Amino acid sequence: QSALTQPRSVSGSPGQSVTISCTGTNSDVGGYNYVSWYQQHPGKAPKLMIYDVTKRPSGVPDRFSGSKSGNTASLTISGLQSEDDADYYCCSYADNYSFEFGGGTKLTVL
Amino acid sequence: QVQLQQSGPGLVKPSQTLSLTCAISGDTVFSISAAWNWIRQSPSRGLEWLGRTYYRAKWYNDYAVYVKSRIIINPDTSKNHFSLHLNSVTPDDTAVYYCTRETDVALDIWGLGTMVTVSS
């Protein structure tokens, strides 16, 4: 069982927006502003999409945005495109200098 | 462009040691703004952080509590590599293992992954 809780699946039509939640505790999500999000296509390595809760690495479209409130972080993808169809994982820095991951959310673009 | 190239066996016998190496190109294992991590992924356990090594005037390590007693992550400074050694493996250690670079408390560069099966 993963330390952070994500919905197993979400879906949306092209052009729509979806939000994926990631719930932790005061020892991880709520205690640090170091939440990151990763996109993973089948058979590929994860790709960093958001870091420090809200920041986007160079090259990541501004359709991807992150936020946090208390012990819950969220990833919002607006203007859904077919290539967004993938698994998404949240990750948080946690006590004991560690990283914790969510169980992953399967995004289906209908 | 930073790249990580993984190498190591895909099959390890139970009770033996799993050893993987990650070669760094485009950066240095001595970087004072990076740390070098190992992550694994399995269908049953999802993504799991294993640990990191990093240089800040001397070498440091952090390890996940659940593997702390049987893991070593160390740099090879002459080859600009870092390695994972996980001993006393069981079938539960079967997973895809990734080496990653950590900057700004996020994992920004990933290796392609190595599928490691623990089986006799």
What does this structure look like?
The complex is a heterodimer of chains A (110) and B (120). Chain A is an all-beta fold and 110 residues long. Chain A is built from no helices and nine strands. In chain A, the strands form two sheets. In chain A, strands 1, 3, 4, 7, 8 and 9 form a six-stranded mixed β-sheet that branches. The mean pLDDT of chain A is 97. With 120 residues, chain B is mainly β. In chain B, strands 2, 4, 5, 6, 9, 10 and 11 form a seven-stranded mixed β-sheet that branches. A four-stranded antiparallel β-sheet of chain B has the order 1-3-8-7, with no helix packed on it. Chain B is globular and about 40 Å long. At the A-B interface, strand 7 and strand 8 of A face strand 5 and strand 10 of B.
Quick synopsis:
The complex is a heterodimer of chains A (110) and B (120). Chain A has no helices and nine strands.
